[in-house]
Amino acid sequence: MPVWRLSIVAFVLGLSLVPAVQAGSEDPLPSPLPHAFAKQQPESLRDLKEIQAHVQRLIAKVMPLTVSLRVGTSQGSGVIITKDGYILTAAHVSGKADQNVEIILHDGRKIKGRTLGANQSIDSGLVKITEPAGLWMHADLGQSSDVKVGQWCLTLGHPLGYQEGRPPVARLGRILEAEKERLRTDCPLVGGDSGGPLFDMKGHVIGVHSRIGPLLSANIHVPVDTYRETWSRLIKGEVWGPNLFETGTTR
Description:
Elements: H1 3-16, H2 45-62, E1 66-71, E2 74-80, E3 86-90, H3 91-94, E4 100-104, E5 110-119, E6 124-129, E7 140-141, E8 152-157, E9 169-179, E10 182-185, E11 197-199, E12 204-211, E13 219-223, H4 225-229, H5 231-235, E14 239-240, H6 244-247
Helix pairs in contact: 1-2
C-alpha cells in the first residue's frame, strides 16, 4: 500500500473513532461530494480535512445499520437493508436456510432472526429479523454496476467477531477491481468482517464482504446488484450453487 494511503487511513480513521456527528444522525451528507474525493490522491491538509469531515458524517449514518450475526458457533457481519428487517450477509456466514440467528446491533442490543437463502457460488446470503414489528433503520442500496475502479469506499464490520463495547469498525479505501460478480478493494478485512457492508461515499451499499484476497489489502466483496437479481430465490430460502470455499475458487 502506498505511504500516502497508509497516512490518510490512519489520519481519517484515527480521528473518526469518536464521530463528530451522533450515530444515526440526520445531518445530511454534502452533495456533490467534497472536491478532494475527485483527486487521485489527497494533495493538501485541506483535502485531508474535507475527507475526514465527510467520513465522520458517513460513519455516523451507516454504523447503526451494520450488525453482528451469530449462527450456531460461527459469526460474521451484516447490514440491514429494509425497514422490515432483511439483512444482507455472506453465504458462508448465513449457511443453511431456516437457522436461528442472534443479531447484535451496533449498540450491543441483541435481537432474533432466521437465515434465508444463499447463493454459494458467489457467496451471497440473506437473513431476516424475526422480532415483533418495528421499522428498522436501514441502508439504501446503490448500483454496483456503476462502481468505478479508483473510487473511494468504506467498509464496516466486526473483525474477529463482536466484542462487547466496541461498535462496528470502519476502514476507508478504494475500488481496485469492479466486475459483475465481484468487487475488490484495498480496505483491510479479517475474519468476522465477512457479510458486512461496503459503502460508497454517499452511504449506499454497493457490496458485501466475502473473503480475504492474496493480500490483506486486496479483498473481495459480493456486488449488491447480484442480490437484486436473485432476490426472489433468497427470500424463499433457496440455497444453491457450488460452495466457493469447498471448490477452491476463493480468490
